[in-house]
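Task 17 of the worksheet. Students: predict the tertiary structure of the chain below and write it out as structure tokens. Keep your answer in the requested format; marks are given for formatting as well as content.
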Amino acid sequence: MTRLAEVDIAELTGRLAEYDLYLKEVCGRNLAEIALAAAKKTRRPVTSRVVAVVPVTSGLGIIHGFCETVAAIVEFLGYPAHVTHETDFAGVAEAMRERYDIIMAADDSTFIAVNPQKQLVSDNSEATGRGFATALSLASGGLLRKNVLLLGAGPVGHAAARSMLREGAVLTVFDIDPLKAAALQRQHPSVRIAESMEDALSEHSLLFDATPAGGFIHKGMLRADAILSAPGVPLCLDQECETWMHGRLLHDVLELGVATMLFDAL
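Model answer:
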């Protein structure tokens, strides 16, 4: 999980309804519907479940507004959510005493949703990879036998690869670290490794960005029919390319990952 900055989430809550409509236009399903599909749920769990979001002070400390934003996303999806008064393990204890159904918490490297009763844990990196892979599939009419380029072979990239390969995608990976690309190929021998990112971009219309680098893709590097699913933070596109890709770009910093985690854990 990439550690977010306050600026990344500053306006997120006010854009939830707009983003929900955008996803519906691009994918044919809204935020909740994409996350339900990613979580392999055929219907929405009961809405009486209550979610606790626990502030965590370890490492670099609490990101101002992060817990409140997570709670807002959960509430937008139709579930009551509260930020605990206590932090860290005291906050977890508070959530357990109050019998919250789901507990969400994040430190610098890990963000999880826990269902204590069902003993379920959903990790944000894995859920984000699945959620954005599902969105790419919906936006492109399915991935069966389609060529997909994956940029980045970290935890989110691995999760996305598993999801897309299960759908029958023909997957090529590029990572600036050849050892990471090779590790992904060892787990999934059918995956091809691209030697040149620029060449691979020109050969693929379906793209998945799971890198932590921003602004390295320019308009002239992409095909006119490109569709990009990009949970990577910051966004891999420069500003001109981001504008040009509107309607073919799936990108957010938190929403789809949180939604998928929630439905995983419910």
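Marker's comment: The CA atoms of residues 54 and 105 lie 5 Å apart. DSSP finds eleven helices and eleven strands in the chain.
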